[in-house]
Amino acid sequence: MIIENIIGITAGILTSISMLPQLLKVIKEKTVEDLSLPMIIILITGLSLWVWYGIIKNELPIIFSNAFAVIVNLFLLSYYLRFKDK
Amino acid sequence: MIIENIIGITAGILTSISMLPQLLKVIKEKTVEDLSLPMIIILITGLSLWVWYGIIKNELPIIFSNAFAVIVNLFLLSYYLRFKDK
């Protein structure tokens, strides 16, 4: 019980923060040519469904990590749309 | 019970396939300049822990979707390392 929570929370933190370096790179360099727009859109949709799944299953690591990842990827999407045409 | 399985499996499929467009884009264009290496490494580590979490919790949608995502991101990592210095 304790081990599974530690694994779940650690996994959640890592997958949540994994997109942060990508987001910071885009903000810093203002180029998104090598990024895939379908990836971002499918990812946001999938992550949102994971949040829903976590709510139904009442599993906090799943809810928080995916909700955070949704927010990061919404920022990534907004920067993508802003820098894409430049 | 049925609804949560549908949501979990759909969420799993979407987050699993989300990195495929990115992988195909990298293979096609052979450039990875705008991709973040820390993102890929942290993501693979986090996804692997999710597989472990899914095994402990015995939740198949979590196991399969994250295992698939680990494989896709290992390919992405190998292409990143191959194209980065070019």
Key features of this structure:
membrane (chains A, B); mainly alpha; transmembrane (chains A, B); Monooxygenase; homodimer; SemiSWEET (chains A, B); SWEET_rpt (chains A, B)
Distance between the termini of chain A: 51 Å
CATH topology grouping of chain A:
Monooxygenase
Uncertain regions spanning at least 5 consecutive residues of chain A: none
User: How many strands, what sense, and barrel or not for the largest sheet of chain A?
Assistant: none
> Which oligomerization state do the chains in this entry correspond to?
homodimer
| Silhouette of chain A | elongated
Strand residue content of chain A: under 5%
Q: What structural category characterises the helix and strand content of chain A? A: mainly alpha
User: What is the average per-residue confidence, as pLDDT of chain A, rounded to a whole number?
Assistant: 87
Chain pair with largest interface: A-B, 43 and 42 residues
The overall number of domains of chain A is: 1
By CATH, the architecture of chain A is named Up-down Bundle
Organism (chains A, B): Sphingobacterium anhuiense
Transmembrane segments (chains A, B): 6-24, 36-56, 62-81
Keywords (chains A, B): Membrane, Transmembrane, Transmembrane helix
InterPro entries (chains A, B): SemiSWEET, SWEET_rpt
Task: Characterise this structure.
2 copies of one chain form a homodimer. The first copy, chain A, is an all-alpha fold. Chain A has a single domain (2-83), classed as Monooxygenase (Up-down Bundle). Chain A contains 4 helices and no strands. Chain A is elongated. The termini of chain A are far apart. The relative contact order of chain A is 0.19. The model of chain A has no long low-confidence stretch (mean pLDDT 87). Chain A binds chain B through residues 3-4, 7-8, 10-22, 24-26, 29, 31-39, 42-43, 45-47, 49-50, 52-53, 56-57, 59, 61, and chain B through 3-4, 7-8, 10-22, 24-26, 29, 31-39, 42-43, 45-47, 49-50, 52-53, 56-57, 61.
